[in-house]
Design goal:
By secondary structure, the chain is an alpha/beta fold. Among the domains are: about 80 residues, Conserved hypothetical protein from pyrococcus furiosus pfu- 392566-001, ParB domain, CATH 3.90.1530; about 80 residues, no CATH class; about 30 residues. The chain is about 55% helix and about 10% strand. It is built from 14 helices and five strands. The protein is extended and about 90 Å long. It starts with 7 loop residues before the first strand and ends with a helix. The model has no long low-confidence stretch (mean pLDDT about 85).
Length: about 280
C-alpha cells in the first residue's frame, strides 16, 4: 500500500524554479483566473518539490502558482516534498506541464528533449525486456505521440532563437522548420537576414533545397537569395533587389526591414512631390 504523502508549508524564499524550465509563464485569461482563485481561496493545491539542500527546494510542478503567490505577497505555500533523482524530476516536470493549453512548439521541443535525455540516462527506462521496445519508442509512447513526431520537435532545439520564435508565431511551419534545423548556425543567420529583408519565410520545398545546399557545403548568401527569390504557389509578384546592391546606401546597423521602411518612406515623399509638381503645371 502506497504511503500517504503529507502536505507541508514552506517559505516562498526557500523555493527555486526548475532548472532550465522549458515552459514560459505567460499572462492571460488562464493566469488571471488562477490569480483570482488564489486571492479569494488561498493556495489550496500543493506544489510538488524536491529537496536540493536543507533550506532549498526545487519546484517540479506548480510554477504558475508559485509566481502568483509571490505577486500576492504571500509568505508560505503548501507543498509535497518528494525525493526524486534528476531523471525522475525531469520526467515529472514535463508530464505535469504538457496538459496546459496553447503550448508553444518551442516549449514542446525543449520539454521533449529534456525528457528524452533524462530517459536515456535512466537504466530503468532503457531496460524494457518484456516489450523489447527501443528507448525512443518508450518515450514517445509516454508522451502520447509517435517516434517521428518526437524527433521532429527535438530538431527544433537546433534552430537559432530568432527562427524558433518565428515557428512559435506561426510564420514558419513545423516541417520546413525541421529542414532548416540542419543548417549551421552561421547559415541560419544568413537565412534570417534574407527573411527580414524579403519579409517572407521559406516554403517546405525551399527549406529542403536550402538543406541540400548546406549538406553540399554550398549554402552562401547568394544561394539563399536565389532560392528565396523563387516564386511560390499563390505568391504575389514581388520586386526585389540583392541586398549587396543597396546595402551601401544605408548604415551598417540597418536590417532588411529597416531598409525596406526607409525605401517606402522615400517613395511616399517622391510621390507627394510628383503630385505637387503636377498641380503646379496645371
Amino acid at each position: 500500500m502506497k504511503e500517504k504523502e503529507t502536505i507541508e508549508y514552506l517559505d516562498l524564499k526557500h523555493l527555486v524554479p526548475f532548472r532550465n524550465h522549458p515552459f514560459k509563464l505567460r499572462d492571460g485569461e488562464e493566469k488571471e483566473q488562477l490569480l483570482q482563485s488564489i486571492k479569494t481561496q488561498g493556495a489550496i493545491e500543493p506544489l510538488i518539490v524536491r529537496p536540493l539542500s536543507e533550506s532549498e527546494y526545487e519546484v517540479i510542478s506548480g510554477h504558475r502558482r508559485l509566481e502568483i503567490c509571490k505577486e500576492l505577497g504571500m509568505e508560505k505555500i503548501p507543498v509535497i516534498v518528494r525525493n526524486l533523482s534528476d531523471e525522475q524530476a525531469v520526467s515529472m516536470m514535463v508530464d505535469a506541464n504538457l496538459h496546459r493549453n496553447n503550448i508553444l512548439p518551442s516549449e514542446r521541443a525543449f520539454a521533449y528533449k529534456m525528457k528524452w535525455e533524462a530517459a536515456k540516462k535512466s537504466e530503468k527506462t532503457l531496460s524494457q525486456p518484456a516489450t523489447r521496445m527501443r528507448n525512443d519508442d518508450v518515450i514517445a509512447q509516454s508522451l502520447g505521440i509517435g517516434k517521428d513526431t518526437l524527433h521532429r520537435y527535438i530538431r527544433l532545439t537546433y534552430l537559432i532563437p530568432e527562427l524558433l520564435e518565428m515557428v512559435d508565431e506561426g510564420r514558419i511551419a513545423l516541417t520546413p522548420a525541421v529542414e532548416l534545423s540542419y543548417l549551421t548556425e552561421q547559415e541560419q543567420h544568413l537565412l534570417l537576414n534574407e527573411i527580414e529583408y524579403a519579409d517572407a519565410t521559406p516554403s517546405l520545398s525551399q527549406a529542403q533545397r536550402l538543406r541540400g545546399f548546406s549538406r553540399q557545403g554550398r549554402l552562401t548568401a547568394d544561394v539563399i537569395f536565389a532560392v528565396m527569390s523563387e516564386e511560390k504557389a499563390n505568391q504575389k509578384e514581388q520586386i526585389r533587389f540583392p541586398k549587396e546592391e543597396i546595402q551601401k546606401y544605408f548604415p551598417k546597423s540597418y536590417t532588411g526591414k529597416d531598409m525596406q521602411n526607409t525605401i517606402l518612406k522615400l517613395l511616399e515623399k517622391w510621390q507627394r512631390q510628383r503630385e505637387r509638381n503636377a498641380k503646379e503645371e496645371r
